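Example 264, ligand arginine.
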Amino acid sequence: MKIYSKIMAAIIIGTMVFATGCASSKEPAAPATEKTAETEKTGEKEQLVMATNAAFPPYEYYEENKIVGIDAEIAEAIAEKLGMELVIEDMEFGSIITAVQGGKVDMGMAGMTVSEERLVNVDFSDTYATGYQVVIVKEGSAITAPDDLADKSIGVQESTTGDIYISNDYKDADIQRYNKGTEAIQALLQDKVDAVVIDREPAKVFVEQNEGLEILPTEYVVEEYAIALAKGNTELLDKINKALEELKADGTVQGILDKYISAE
Ligand code: ARG
């Protein structure tokens, strides 16, 4: 979208230069060259810029230097339907809503839960996946259910719903906020916190990657993931919802979820 306005500006400036050029009969060809350069850069497709936090497998993470995962693939499929070029911008999770709100990006997609607080600042697309907040502890921990967290030290990823729910539900808990889920996991391994609250699928990945951890069988909260858009951007919202509907109907979304999430 940003590039689109750049092209418009290039065309307008180009026309102005062209007009001036004609008057003085100097280099009338210059503006045309400039416009071609812009068009080549964008591959003639309008960009769909997505903000994410690529430290959240299997939804978004790096494979070498490419961001892959469920969200990256669903976004790619949406962009394709819209005839747009997907561009992914990686940032801290807590910056995504602000970036969407301020129009720096077109959408935020980051295993992001629809919540009342967020709906004050952004709009959400239809949901494309269910999320679960779970509790990770060291094997054999005295914590066996979410209620045991009340007076414990808990690691969360800053600004996530895990952070928000724990802060509201357990006022006496010592909450340690980390930039990334993996940092919270390191703290748990080093006994700096007693438990980590995070979304289930990343939790499964982190538990698999580290010895001696387990996920409590009782889920803490069930939630819905959706794409965040600037308030009132109904044109893009409608297009995305239509694309999502088609991608759900033809099994594309389920296929992507199945590719990254193994059945229990
Ligand atoms: N579902 C949680 C939330 O919306 C956590 C999402 C974290 N996502 C990420 N890419 N780090 O707050």
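Summary: Residues 131-223 form a domain with the D-Maltodextrin-Binding Protein; domain 2 fold (CATH 3.40.190.10).
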